[in-house]
Amino acid sequence: MTIVTGARTGAEPPDPYATEALCARILERHRDRVSVRKERLATQNLARIIEAVLVLSSRQGFHETSLRDLARETGLSMGGLYTYFDTKETLLLMILTEVVESVQAALAAAPPEVAARPRAHLRWLIETHIRLTEAMGPWFVFAFMEAKGFPPPARRLATESELAVEQVFAKVLETGVRNGDFAIEDVSLTAALIKPLLQDWYVKRAKYAKRGMTIERYVAGVIGLVERAILAGSDGPA
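Structure tokens predicted for Putative HTH-type transcriptional regulator YfiR (238 residues):
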């Protein structure tokens, strides 16, 4: 498990999920759209823009957030904003694509010794996904809450990403069934049912905070629930 959240010391490497680190990757991906040539300045300003988007969207929704709102929140001029994106849809796709790419990269990084054992791999996937949503909380909340209002390109990207995540889990479940580790009648359905358990941690974060739920307990709870349902020889349903 390589995704770590919480306090860090100066001896630790930079947080790959800090806003500026995420924005540096966005800038690299969209360099042809961003006209600011100084990389450090471009990254810092893009981080200001995206942080403002996440804050304003949580208050009033992305659709209701105007570029004037964004300029006021960031302290950048309207012209300054347009040096980073041409439309709000482009800005939305920048954010959503980074969420999608981060998920895909994280779930594909299982150590070989973990990937070789379906039960260990499933546990690793569950923990990795939940900890990633903790590290990128506002980004995931934004993507989830704004999904209904996505324009077609963003909606397609979100749908394809959700299916891709389910397929990652389904592949591990299928391997476990073949190995005799799991007893599952419908692998695709089981993978689809796991997904909401992963989302619940960030979608209902306030509820779990009031209950004093730690991420460690939540991860263990999801793993326990899933394993009781699918382990071969368990008393739970398949």
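The chain has twelve helices and no strands.
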